[in-house]
User: What shape does this take?
Amino acid sequence: MATLKTHLPLPTADEAFQRLIDGNQRFLRGEARFPTVQKEILANLAQGQQPYATILGCSDSRVPPELIFDAGFGELFIVRVAGNVLSAEIMGSLQYAGSHLHTPLFVVLGHSGCGAVQAALETQQHGVQHRVRIQFLINNILPGLPNLDPRLPPSAQLERAVEANVRWTLRQLLETPEGQARMAEGRMKLVGAVYEIESGCVRFLP
Ligand SMILES: [Zn+2]
Assistant: This one.
């Protein structure tokens, strides 16, 4: 009987990180593997999942994590929400990935041209109030926005705000008792990244 995928040892955080980098490189070179459905793979996955990374990304249709990291079924545990913001439910999904699935790598993935971050800038700079539930989401982004130089071109302001929003989400995750405990153990890694929708390149933040 074939060994179940779920019984394979998990990669280390650094190995998982390299897999994402390699996957994005394949995607950029146009060498992504088409996600073919093989009955054997599905049967194995039916026994359980063992994703190597957890991604908190934006709902934007131009940023599908499996495609940009050239990942297959069962490889990525993904939470998508506009503006890659945190809330209690999203924290719950991430906690599940950490404590039950033990994914060694967590990525907060923002992207260029993010509409949610743009909307938050409009509130911050011009007091724009969006429709009530959208504003509720935007309010999660506001505390992490820096005061940007208004003389900067709008595109440069948005670029900085996108990166600041990723770092804000990272900081909130790190400040949870669980986040601190996991980091202290040293087995899990938390990184920020920005996907450039113009080029298809994922830029990991230093
Ligand atoms: Zn977005």
User: Anything to note?
Assistant: DSSP finds eight helices and five strands in the chain. Residues 77-194 form a domain with the Beta-carbonic Anhydrase; Chain A fold (CATH 3.40.1050.10). The first strand starts at residue 53 and ends at 57.
